[in-house]
Amino acid sequence: MSTITASVPVGGTTGHDHETTAAIDEAARWLAFEPSPPSPLVPALRRRFGLSVVDACAAIKEARLIRGRAL
Q: If you write DSSP's letter for every residue of 10-21 in order, what string do you get?
């Protein structure tokens, strides 16, 4: 019988540290209430909030959820 080791961290981690999560949340709140967001959006979020491409996309997703809850 072989043993399989998990390549995914155990303990519920998302891979984001608290600082990154805070930056994503801040970017999402800003974007959700920004009347005329810049275009293209991902590079603008990366410059303004120091996010990676993946984190900028997460912020966009979260902003859409925030806007949806505000309706």
A: SSS--S--HHHH
- Note the pLDDT tens digit of each residue in 26-66: 999 999 999 999 999 999 999 999 999 999 999 999 999 99
Number of helical (H) and strand (E) elements in the chain, helices listed first = 3, 0
Domain boundaries, the chain: 27-70
- Distance from C-alpha of 26 to C-alpha of 6, rounded to nearest angstrom: 33
Q: Record the pTM.
A: 0.73
